[in-house]
Here is the input.
Amino acid sequence: MEYVQILNVEKVCRLLEKGLDPNFHDPDTGECPLTMATQLEHSAEVIKVLKNGGAHLDFRTREGMTALHKAIRCRNHIALMTLLDLGASPDYKDSRGLTPLYHSAMVGGDPYCCELLLHDYAKVGCVDENGWQEIHQACRYGHVQHLEHLLFYGADMTSQNASGNTALHICALYNQESCARVLLFRGASKEIRNYNSQTAFQVAIIAGNFELAEIIKTHKESDVVPFRETPSYTKRRRLTGAGGLSSPRLLQRSASDNNLKAESHPSYSPVPSLRSLPPQLLVQMQEAAVGAGVGDSSLVSTGSSRSAHSRSPSLQRVQEEKEADVHTLRRSSRSKSR
Here is the structure.
């Protein structure tokens, strides 16, 4: 563990070559070598060495978190990218059944981490013991960009927690004006009632958040602007036809296949943040994106607004699969008739 902490790749490699099993818990911290490495900066090489030396990507700490969860909670997008490239599933669950995407919505930080998971087919809609989903957590803590990414990748704005509160109710309760504006802008219903028969407007009044209550009250359906484009996904993972699920989600194992053949999906619309907010914010955000120089070319915005797509990503995939099934059935019927 000391060699991992100081990022001594050579020493770690020697120990692994001698037969050291890297899947163990530190008696003091409960961490394993891989989860320790993902919490450090510039740790990509150590992570690769540990994986090649037998470290299980889904090996959990004593508190029940995988390396992906740790990378998200430390906002370490380099470690996150490395783990995903090595074959880690973005849908690994911790001891509470929560995914890295759920943790990302809670802790906030760099929204690029959230987008990386979604770009890698992370499943949206993880539910905790109180019925909260990622969208509720993003609104609870005011993580606007995370909310943008979640909505763009198909998060359900009508989902209700154990109290019947939608994400808009949560905004009203915790006075998260920016998140509420995004939800309303994207078409969230302000008429849904929680299990106390309260609308989001009424919750805002009861909580004393009168300015937000006025925003909800005066919002009109004509102000809604749905997404015109569909999100982009990595070409590293193959989608299966059964139920629209991707194979990585079905294989919750440690030794993920790193040699999956890439499927040539069309490059869909990239970063939602550049087209999800009102026009007055677009110029500033585009300039910031250019200055940041983010590395993944498939996540860089094209700035296109001509696409007519407004369906959620999940609906887009289901439609494609249905068309493929119809085509297969037609071919089968023709061969039988011969």
In short: The chain is about 45% helix and 0% strand. The mean pLDDT is 79. Residues 313-337 form the longest helix (25 residues).
